[in-house]
Specification:
- By secondary structure, the protein is α/β, with parallel strands linked by helices.
- It has a single domain, classed as 3-Layer(aba) Sandwich (Rossmann fold).
- It has nine helices and seven strands.
- It has helices at about 10-20, 35-40, 55-70, 95-120, 125, 150-170, 185-190, 195-205, 215-225; strands at about 1-5, 25-30, 45-50, 75-80, 130-135, 175-180, 235-240.
- A seven-stranded parallel beta sheet has the order 3-2-1-4-5-6-7, sandwiched between helices.
- The longest helix has 27 residues, at about 95-120.
- The structure holds nicotinamide-adenine-dinucleotide (NAD).
- Nicotinamide-adenine-dinucleotide binds next to helix 1 and helix 7.
- Nicotinamide-adenine-dinucleotide (NAD) binds near residues 9, 80, 83, 138 and 188.
Length: about 260
């Protein structure tokens, strides 16, 4: 069984659908309870929905219990829930915004890892290849980005948590990896102000793969990391960004541009 956070829409919903299509049982969770219920209803017997605000450890305990109750075991956790705050330079970022970003994007991942460890230590999970935790960071968890200090701090934090958890949990057969998406065409981006979307479009045009990624493409990577296809991967960062971080665009610098 896979428990996915922030799965009412965007990448989390795409992961729920992809995992169910592969035969997995899915616990679809989100702070948007109705949205999570709608995604789970589409998946029929393969899924149950559970409201989960990732900042609340008590709700984590309830969601894990609901999943175990429904499906008997917990093999995979996708820590996907996250928020992108309004871009502001550091001196204009409010403490409230900063703390909210860290509470959801970083504390939420910490609480999630803690909540599933016991269930993932169980013998049937181990016998089937061991548990897998996939934490969704960002390319902003690898390089800094002006105007997004709290977001970048939260996503760099996810990278550190991922590596540490991998070191601590390897002995229980639990693998822990992070995903680092570039710009993905989910509601988080679609609902951004028009001026920001226009800047993102210009950025995308300069990438080796000159477009935004799709939630389904990220779901494919999450599926690989969730499955035993990735049995030798742990404590690692998986970038999925259309080549965005490969290097700055310098076409024609050392060649004639042909
Ligand atoms: N879209 C991008 O360009 C992009 C790039 C890099 C990383 N990411 C990361 O990918 C993840 C998924 O984002 P997305 O693109 O699908 O965005 P999205 O906004 O479409 O989906 C995020 C989901 O998280 C949920 N959520 C927010 N706060 C929550 C909370 N406290 N508890 C539980 N759920 C909560 C939302 O309700 C929503 O369903 C996030 O962690 C995001 O930071 C997104």
């Amino acid at each position: 069984m896979a428990l996915i956070t922030g799965a009412a829409q965007g990448q989390g919903a795409a992961e729920a659908r992809r995992f169910a299509a592969e035969g997995a049982r899915v616990v679809v969770t989100d702070v948007l309870a109705d949205g999570a219920a709608a995604v789970a209803a589409d998946l029929g017997d393969a899924a149950v929905a559970c409201p989960l605000d990732v900042t609340d450890p008590d709700q984590w305990a309830e969601a894990v219990a609901a999943g175990l109750d429904a499906f008997g075991r917990l093999d995979v956790l996708i820590n996907n829930a996250g928020v992108g705050p309004t871009p502001r330079v550091i001196e204009e970022t409010t403490l409230e915004d900063h703390r909210r970003t860290l509470a959801i994007n970083l504390d939420g991942v910490f609480f999630g890892i803690r909540a599933v460890i016991d269930a993932m230590k169980a013998e049937p999970v181990r016998a089937a290849g061991g548990g897998s935790i996939v934490n969704v960071s960002s390319i902003d968890g690898i390089v800094g980005v002006p105007g997004m200090s709290s977001y970048a701090a939260s996503k760099f934090g996810v990278t550190g948590l991922t590596r540490t958890a991998a070191l601590e949990l390897g002995r229980f057969g639990i693998r822990v990896n992070s995903i680092h998406p570039g710009v993905i065409a989910s509601p988080m981006v679609a609902e951004a102000p028009a001026a920001i979307r226009a800047r993102l479009d210009r950025l995308m045009a300069a990438q080796p793969i000159p477009r935004m990624g799709t939630p389904e493409e990220v779901a494919n990577l999450a599926l690989f990391l969730a499955s035993t296809e990735s049995s030798y991967c742990t404590g690692a960062q998986f970038v999925i960004d259309g080549g965005h971080l490969a290097g700055p665009p310098r076409e024609g610098l050392w060649t004639d541009g042909d």
